[in-house]
Amino acid sequence: MTDPAAAARLTLAVGDRVVYPNQGVCRVTAVESKDIAGQRLMFVTLKREEDNAVVMVPEAKVVSIGLRKVGDSTQVDGIFEFLRSDSDKANLDWKQRARANVERMSQGGLMGLAEVVKGLQVLSELRPLPAKERELYDNARHLLVEEIAASLKIDPADAEDTVDVILFPPGKERPKRTAEEFRLPSLDDDAEMDLDDPLLAVVDDLELPPGDEPHGEDDTEVEGRAVESEDTPTKLAKPAATRGRPRKKPLETPASNSDDEVTEPEAQAAPPAPQAPSTPQAPRKRGRPPKPKPPGAELPKVPKKRGRPPKVRPPEPVEAAPKKPKAPAAAASAPAKWAKAAAKVPNTGKKR
Amino acid sequence: MIRIATLDEFEPKEVAKFRDGLYASFGVGCEHSGLVELPGGFEEPFDGPKLLAALPSVQAYPDDKTLYLTSRKLQDRTFVTGKTPTHGYAQYGKDRALLSIAGSKGLGEDLKWVTRQAMHQLGRLWDLHHCLDPRCAMYPTWTPSFAAGDSTFDNFCREKSEQRIRLSKS
């Protein structure tokens, strides 16, 4: 991380070589004051050595953006020592890894770049890097090589070979890693965390509805996926804190935790009430039981006719009566909604 | 355009095959610019970086990349972290690279290996770094798996080189 005391001491002069985080090695070409929106500000003008891109930074922001001097040869030696060491194991949780890498790239300085390169290099010995991380690896490697070249005053090609003699030793193949090597030691033992037994003891007393039986097959599938997935240590460490459907493994009794019973879970999870031995038990259906039907629902229904309902004919007048308008007559016999609709539209025959 | 300049005599047919391989790998025009005379004061094994700096230019356009090909040996390079066997050298992000085929069976018999080495050095001219994939030509040349691989890039390196070539053309 950037040392705040060192950053506060950073004074820049024309010709200095500095490192702009995530951009690379730049040279200070000017320190001048400019009028911007009525304010007089001091600006440091930087030119990136790689492509001569120019950036102007207000002097007050130099520290906050993480601008720093190019590392010296002592720092570079420390980087080589770090790259030689076998201490760094990549985090298998991709979210934590991505967050840490972004922070290292922006604020970690030269060592932060080396940590990103080493971490992703080690991870690539377990499995190929995804596209985003491959890009991040390339960016970190580029910035690291540029800074080492600037620091040791050598060509970038030589700087890269200097780093890669450590990362890819001549005449040797890179080792193949296993997921076990990346497991954090503090999260390995479930026994140490003492999570299994109390949970099992509590759940053993529960009576479940017949539809919610535990299924051993599902359980083994979940275990298999957890072993293959990236987040193995986290998932193994927090069995009780998972979201969504609760895990079903604790429903097994501790004494019956054997391989045979995992393959035949339904016999083990029978309801506790005794049943008559003579009545053969039908195979129980999985899933939610069907809803109870209302008492009148079982009567055979008259099939509905499709299409517009037939027109209601007005009753024949018994006596001679004055003719009524058509709509109210229809409204009298049609359903209420039709009557309302007819009342809203007066049949005047005139346009408005 | 990739320009191949030879420092020694090679069979024209072999050079043509080599040129076709580079054209297929980068999708950029590639031609043989003829024999270039070795500057004086250099003895075998050559110091790659110094020789590369001293060689005359054969560029026709500013974005041309030149590959100097020799059959003589290059010095192993020594760094603060160790020593590596050297078959080639390239000025990173610039325009000239040097490749020695000493140690191979020759341009005709070992064309795949020579093309892979040339791709590695030319890739450096287009800002490619060493790759993590042993099948990629940008894998470090001193590793045992490098010799076993084909003359191809992995997806990342291929896309990056294509992008750089497009940018340099515009």
Structural write-up:
The complex is a heterodimer of chains A (352) and B (170). Chain A is an alpha+beta fold and 352 residues long. Chain A is 39% helix and 10% strand. Chain A is elongated and about 115 Å long. Chain A starts with a helix and ends in an 8-residue tail after the last helix. In chain A, 18% of the residues are buried. The longest helix of chain B is centred in the N-terminal third of the chain and has 15 residues, at 12-26. In chain B, helix 1 links the parallel strand 1 and strand 2. In chain B, the strands form two sheets. Chain B has a five-stranded mixed beta sheet, with helices on both faces. In chain B, strands 4-5 form a two-stranded antiparallel sheet.
Give a nutshell description of this structure:
The complex is a heterodimer of chains A (352) and B (170). With 352 residues, chain A is of the alpha+beta class.
User: Which strand order do you get reading across the main beta sheet of chain A?
Assistant: 4-3-2-1-5
Report on the biggest sheet of chain A. Answer: 5 strands, antiparallel
**Element-level helix/strand string of chain B:** EHEHEEEEEHHH
Mass-distribution shape of chain A:
elongated
Number of discrete helical segments of chain B: 5
Mean pLDDT of chain B: 92
The percentage helix of chain A is 25-40%
Strand content of chain A: 5-15%
Subunit organisation of the chains: heterodimer
- DSSP strand tally of chain B: 7
Shape of chain B: globular
Strand percentage of chain B: 15-25%
Record keyword descriptors for this entry:
heterodimer; A: 352 residues; alpha+beta; 5-stranded antiparallel β-sheet; 14 helices; 5 strands; elongated; B: 170 residues; alpha/beta; two-stranded antiparallel ribbon; 5 helices; 17% strand
Q: How are the SSEs placed, and which strands pair?
A:
The complex is a heterodimer of chains A (352) and B (170).
Chain A lengths: L3 H5 L8 E4 L3 E13 L2 E10 L5 E5 L9 E2 L3 H12 L9 H14 L1 H16 L6 H22 L3 H12 L22 H4 L2 H9 L11 H13 L3 H6 L21 H5 L1 H4 L57 H8 L2 H9 L8
Antiparallel strand pairs in A: 1-2, 1-5, 2-3, 3-4
Helix pairs in contact in A: 2-4, 3-4, 4-5, 5-6, 13-14
Chain B lengths: L1 E5 L5 H15 L3 E6 L12 H7 L10 E6 L6 E2 L4 E2 L3 E3 L5 E5 L10 H15 L18 H5 L6 H15 L1
Helix pairs in contact in B: 1-3
